[in-house]
Amino acid sequence: MKIEIAGQNAFIVYFADQTSAAVSAKIQAAVDNILTNMADCIVDLVPSYASLLVIFDLDRSDPFAMRQRLRVALAELDSVDGGAGDLVTLPVYYSLESGPDLEVIAERGNLSVEAVIDIHQQQEYRVYAIGFAPGFAYLGEVDERISAPRLATPRQKVPRGAVAIADRQTAVYPAVSPGGWNLIGLCPTRMFDPASDPSMPVKVGDRIRFSAIERARFLELGGEL
């Protein structure tokens, strides 16, 4: 791990050169340990794929002391009980109606549409990062059999709740927006709601599973077609 200056009151901790489930778990353990032992001077923690941005209060700690405290907190990670993240199950209405790219992914992998749906549900995904839009969680890693490159021409309008695949990642669009990922279904769960506490149902480090539901159940849960 490397600790580097990211501003007058911020450090960025690099855990590895690339992400993995193990790296993500270690970052989540670091977040938990830092919040437990350094809450008196922490302003914000921003976890990402293989790094953690630590923003601290200059009125409560100076950069030198903060770096030393960070080193101690990170050195204790092996003894920290945590980092596994919560397991969150998201319902999905998979169909040609709700997933216009299902057939394309099936043909690409020489699979049936049903097989693509089954494979997508079998995997447990890790929340590697949240970005692009509030609530847009980057989940990995998708089974190679159903991985698919981004669209050559992005759609101008992707519906809220669209479940999508791009390369070895999958995600749920939290709001209507442009997008270039392959759409395979719709999720009725709101991925970002500023009126709720917490505002997002998932956080970096959590584990995600998808579970198929029928069209009627999707609509009962507040889904929109």
Overview of the molecule:
The chain has 225 residues and is α+β, with helices and mostly antiparallel strands. The chain folds into two domains: 2-79, Gyrase A, domain 2 (2-Layer Sandwich); 87-220, Beta Barrel (Cyclophilin). The chain is 24% helix and 30% strand. The protein contains five helices and 13 strands. The protein has helices at 21-38, 63-75, 102-108, 113-122, 215-220, and strands at residues 2-7, 10-14, 42-47, 51-56, 87-94, 125-130, 137-140, 155-158, 162-166, 169-172, 177-179, 182-186, 207-212. Strands 5-12-9-10-7-6-13 form a seven-stranded mixed beta barrel. A four-stranded antiparallel β-sheet has the order 1-2-4-3, with helices on one face. Strands 8-11 form a two-stranded antiparallel sheet. A hairpin with a 2-residue loop joins strand 1 and strand 2 (10-14). Helix 1 (21-38) packs across helix 2 and helix 3 (102-108) crosses helix 4. The longest helix is centred in the N-terminal third of the chain and has 18 residues, at 21-38. The N and C termini lie far apart (46 Å). 33% of the residues are buried. The mean pLDDT is 92.
